[in-house]
Design a protein that fits this description.
Mean pLDDT of chain A: 89
Chains: A alpha/beta, B mainly alpha, C mainly alpha
Number of helices of chain C: 14
Order of helices and strands of chain A: EEEHEEHEHHHEHEHEEHH
Helix content of chain A: 25-40%
Largest sheet of chain A: 6 strands, mixed
Number of strands of chain A: 10
Strand content of chain C: under 5%
Largest sheet of chain C: 2 strands, antiparallel
Number of domains of chain C: 1
Order of helices and strands of chain C: HHHHHEHHHHEHHHHH
Oligomer: heterotrimer
Structural class of chain C: mainly alpha
Radius of gyration of chain C: 20 Å
Strand order of the largest sheet of chain C: 1-2
Mean pLDDT of chain C: 88
Radius of gyration of chain A: 18 Å
CATH topology of chain C: ABC transporter involved in vitamin B12 uptake, BtuC
Low-confidence stretches of chain A: none
Distance between the termini of chain C: 34 Å
């Protein structure tokens, strides 16, 4: 299992905002074809960790490397070129463009670049892939909530990233949509993509993740398979508080 | 040495004007490019009262300040609040308010030109020298500086001690969270905008005692106030004061050692240097 | 190329041909007006190429324009006129790149102030330099007539439209549309946003400098207050936004009525031009936030909706 070199390794990554330590000396690896869940209670620093990896924020200290090459503190566009792509916690689409162009936006400047008819065809194929076939010409303003999430996912996939960061991609979906969403991510997993999943939905974590890193108050408190970490007393205490045990 | 002191005296008045703009931008989130016209209007009032009734500009302030407060409150409610409401993003509000206040600024210049004509106006008030450390300084400059110090001091105390002042600072730091703790952001934004206008107009009344103004000089002061606010850091009273004094000294240095025609060029060069090396302001924390 | 594009191209070529015939009327008034319209079309269209997608409001037009004027003013005795026009374009692009590198990483307010101050800075420095050397202005004496200047501007306009059209179809143009929508998404999609903005800002910089260079012979006598008048920057912003900065042909729709209105007001009520500028800004913000183009779009949509209902 552990024979392959890690795709991403995070060593001592720390982020301070003034006096507040949002992420404290995080260490973890993600290996090829693995879906890693980054979980923890609200405000535990999961999204900040994701922002450090994607380049949206620069770490105060520590190193992050992609296949052995340090990418610490690089600009987000450079990190995207190197093959890491992300979704946003609150879906961000490009309001002036139709669905297809929203996806093309991810294809033109990403890890692998396409342009013109090739990019449009690639976008249409991805729209089929996420279940939006035939909706390419729709304005994004008319989409349902889950469809906006699908467009964002297609945009992120359009640059053929080697590592996918999904920030609470399943949050806010109703039970039916959640089913669809989980299936969609599972299909990405089955394709052998490497994914970091920041997630709250336990069902999704159990069924999708190979491994989980649990954060609380900015630090890693547990690491292992979903079953292991979800039965870890420290993790339960972090989620439920420790005054009733 | 006398250049340095003259610069400080000038900087004191600049601090007042920039403080007005900073309240408007920091709390009400409106980059008010008509700020300079408010200053000129304040100066006009002082001029008019002095020439018509020999009323001291320092007394005129008592009339100018409430008038400007009311006028700016109205401007905010009628013109700017709709923009705040319709803006979907910070960027959109920014460009809308830039264009709207530019419009306001030109309309104000146009109206002042129509009413007062394009002449320069100045009057002689307290224009006798006072001697300090062997050098002469205009009494009007010293008096204006003292007035500015008093008003800046009061404003600083108010922002730091009073409940309303605390709320203002809360809005300047984190508008979304301020709303959560029950601060009425809309209401206070209007008051901050009005107060900023009143402070600037007061600055105009004081500055008119020793500088010559005309209907179209407003934009120069807007530019200087903007430069000071950005140098000092948005929402930072202490930074504003230091930046204003710095600008006053640099301008006076350039004017007396090189050429008085280069004062704005000097201010602008200072601004470029700040932008290049400390875009977060002199005392601002680096945003990462 | 699609059929619609070919039709647009033919129409544009026709319009250009008709515009080029104007000097044949022999009327000084019409030529003067045409010259103004051509000049502002060039300036406003190139301005909108950058400011339309990025929403940055540039007030640097006067700085670039003056730079071009002075390039010709200082060099026309030593270098051939055409090389000076080209040189002006290069200098304008370089200045724009420098300004862009310093400011475009920062928020829009900084950019506005920076560009507003730029023309003033250059003007003060040139005035000072001239005072030191003891001369007030420069004479530009050439045998270039107003007809020539007009034709040059029409040619430049054609070039600007061509460049705008090409940018619109290029990756750079697409990148800028993404940046205009959401800069954060743009960065995370792999776009070097600062580089894209700087590159595009060089276009209006170069074009405004070339325009200034072309107009220098018309002024005959140039001085800083004329070459760097801040009014020019504001007029360009108003015309572009009034027409609509979102489309290539949008600014033209604003240039024609505003240039005529400006001409009329400034000849009948010369003191009220400030008021006109102010009111125009307010109209743009409160009445026509998307310009005439937006208005046309709304009307069209209403019409097509009505058809859809029946």
């Amino acid at each position: 299992m552990r024979s392959t070199a890690p795709v991403l390794s995070v060593r001592g990554a720390t982020k301070r905002f003034g006096g507040l330590v949002a992420v404290n000396a995080m260490d973890f690896d993600v290996t090829e074809h693995q879906v890693m869940g980054l979980i923890g209670p609200n405000g535990s620093g999961k999204s900040t960790t994701l922002n450090l990896i994607s380049g949206a924020l620069k770490p105060t200290s520590g190193t992050i490397s992609l296949r052995g090459t340090p990418i610490t503190g690089l600009a987000p566009q450079t990190i995207t070129h190197k093959g890491i792509a992300r979704t946003f916690q609150l879906v961000r689409l490009l309001p002036s463009m139709n669905v297809r162009d929203n996806v093309v936006a991810g294809a033109v400047f990403g890890h692998r670049r396409r342009w013109g008819a090739e990019a449009a065809a690639h976008a249409d194929a991805l729209l089929d892939r996420v279940g939006l076939g035939g909706k390419g010409d729709m304005p994004v303003g008319q989409l349902t909530y889950i469809d906006t999430k699908r467009v964002e996912l297609a945009r992120v996939l359009a640059g053929d990233p080697t590592l996918l960061l999904l920030d609470e991609w399943l949050a806010g979906l109703n039970p039916t949509e959640l089913r669809i969403g989980i299936d969609l991510i599972r299909s990405l997993r089955d394709e052998g993509r490497t994914i970091i999943l920041v997630e709250h939905v336990m069902d999704a974590i159990r069924s999708l993740c190979d491994r989980c890193v649990v954060m609380s108050s900015g630090s890693k408190i547990a690491e292992g398979t979903p079953t292991q970490v979800l039965s870890d007393p420290d993790v339960i205490r972090a989620y439920l508080g420790d005054d009733d045990d | 040495m006398d250049i340095f002191l003259t610069g400080l005296l000038l900087g004191g008045t600049y601090a007042l004007i920039a403080m007005g703009l900073n309240l408007q931008y920091g709390v009400a989130r409106i980059m008010n490019l008509a700020n300079g016209e408010m200053l000129v209007a304040g100066g006009f009032c002082a001029f008019w009262f002095y020439t018509a009734g020999q009323v001291s500009p320092f007394l005129t302030v008592a009339i100018v300040a409430p008038l400007a407060f009311a006028a700016n409150w109205l401007i905010y409610q009628v013109m700017l609040r709709p923009l705040v409401k319709r803006a979907k993003t910070r960027g959109q509000l920014e460009s809308d308010s830039i264009l709207a206040t530019f419009g306001l600024s030109f309309v104000a210049v146009g109206l002042m030109l129509a009413v007062f004509g394009g002449d320069y106006f100045n009057y002689s008030y307290l224009s006798r020298p006072v001697t300090f450390a062997g050098e002469n300084y205009g009494l009007n400059r010293v008096a204006a500086f003292c007035g500015a110090v008093v008003i800046c001091g009061l404003l600083y105390l108010w922002l730091n001690q009073s409940r309303a002042g605390l709320s203002m600072r809360a809005i300047a730091t984190a508008p979304a969270s301020a709303r959560l703790v029950g601060i009425s952001v809309g209401h206070l934004a209007a008051i901050a905008f009005a107060l900023g206008g009143a402070v600037t107009a007061t600055g105009g009344a004081l500055i008119s005692t020793f500088l010559t103004l005309d209907a179209s000089t407003g934009v120069m002061f807007t530019l200087k106030a903007l430069i000071i606010v950005i140098m000092g850091g948005v929402g930072d009273v202490r930074g504003t004061i230091v930046a204003a004094l710095l600008l006053g000294v640099v301008e006076t240095l350039v004017a007396s050692l090189i050429d008085p025609g280069l004062t704005l060029a000097a201010a602008y060069t200072l601004f470029i240097l700040i932008l290049l090396f400390r875009p977060q302001g002199l005392f601002g924390r680096r945003q990462t | 190329m699609t059929a619609a594009e070919i039709r647009t191209l033919i129409l544009a070529a026709l319009a250009l041909g008709v515009a080029a015939l104007l000097p044949l009327t022999g009327s000084g008034y019409w030529l003067g007006l045409g010259l103004n319209i051509a000049m502002f079309t060039v300036l406003a269209t190139s301005w909108a190429l950058f400011s339309g997608p990025t929403h940055y409001i540039s007030l640097a037009t006067a700085a670039f324009f003056g730079l071009g004027t002075y390039t010709v003013g200082l060099g026309f005795e030593t270098l051939p006129y055409w090389s000076l026009v080209a040189l002006a374009g290069i200098l304008g692009a370089v200045l724009a790149a420098l300004v862009g590198l310093a400011t475009l990483r920062l928020s829009g307010v900084y950019f506005v102030i920076f560009t507003l101050g730029l023309a003033e800075l250059v003007r003060q420095v040139i005035t000072w330099a001239q005072n030191m050397s003891g001369q007030k202005g420069l004479y530009v004496l050439t045998d270039i007539t107003e007809d020539h200047i007009y034709w040059q501007l029409v040619g430049l306009a054609a070039l600007v439209y061509l460049v705008g059209w090409l940018i619109g179809r290029s990756r750079l143009g697409f990148a800028l549309r993404i940046i205009g929508d959401d800069e954060e998404v743009a960065r995370h999609s792999g776009i070097d946003t600062a580089r894209a903005k700087v590159l595009l800002f060089m276009v209006p910089g170069a074009v405004a400098a070339i325009t200034g260079a072309m107009l220098a012979p018309r002024y005959v006598y140039i001085e800083p207050a004329l070459a760097f008048t801040p009014m020019l920057s504001f007029q360009v912003v108003i015309m572009a936004l009034l027409g609509g900065a979102g489309r290539l042909w949008g600014p033209l729709v604003g240039v024609i009525p505003f240039a005529i209105l400006w001409e009329t007001i400034s000849s009948t009520f010369p003191n009220q031009t400030m008021l006109l500028l102010g009111v125009s800004f307010l109209v743009i913000v409160y009445v026509l936030p998307k310009g005439f183009v937006g208005l046309i779009d709304t009307v069209r949509r209403r019409l097509s909706n009505r058809e859809g209902w029946t």
